[in-house]
Amino acid sequence: MQNLTVNLWMQGNAEEAGDFYAAALPEARSEVESRYPTEGLLDFQKPFAGEALTVSVWVRGTKITLINAGNEFDPNPSISIILNFRASERELLDSTWAALSDGGQVMMPLQQYPFSEHYGWVTDRFGVSWQLMESAQEIQPGAQVLPSLMFCGQAQNRAAEALEFYSDVFGAKVHMQVPYGQANEVVHAESIMFSQFSLGEDVLSAMDSGVSQPFTFTPGVSLQWDCEGQAEIDRLWDALSAVPEAEACGWLSDKFGVSWQIVPANMDELMKRPHAFQHMLGMKKLVIDEF
Domains plus CATH for the chain? Predict the structure, then answer.
């Protein structure tokens, strides 16, 4: 069961982006999951009255959520999405690359690297970063589509610390951790070149950037965690939230700057209650009984 969802901040074009990803990504589909109410909105939300609020995209069974909002934030490569392909799927990898790179920006060209026979990193036309990788080994369940956290900017060289922290908070299990082994002007020898870990059944990757980057984590890409009840919401909120001014409507920023949305697992049901959207706007930590 998927507990972790990557949420992507879209600047008023979530439905357009959903249609794009449904066509560009392997085994993908999209649908509008929720809409803004037509009344009770804050002033800055009024232009979205009746418009899509969240658009869900499923890629090979993994859900990604597009949040329709303003121009306050946009995605950046500090959190990208890795798409793993089998060697027999190179034609599919190439067609996906062609679609994502059309109107986008190539960060690492699609070619052979020491870690993959066929790999590339691209930021698409909506600012979302994707790593397409051909794997010579069997791809474990949950690892076909996985978020990748790049610790850079103010979070540079904190990937190992984050792995330990997420292990304490979520019970994360680290499956692979490869250090750079040699320092340069940005990384230490023990900085993480690549790691893979799991939060329950959800698989993620983390690394320290090997070069200086002009960006770091922002709400442009956030990680949503679905909680079974108020006790889990309370525990995770207390453990994760490190920036009081970032707390709003279930959103928080942890000590590394990573944005999380800590929400009830039955959020869709709660949002159908009368005036639920207005109630949510008044909360920082979500309280189930207050919807």
Answer: 4-73+220-290 (3.10.180.10), 79-208 (3.30.720.110)
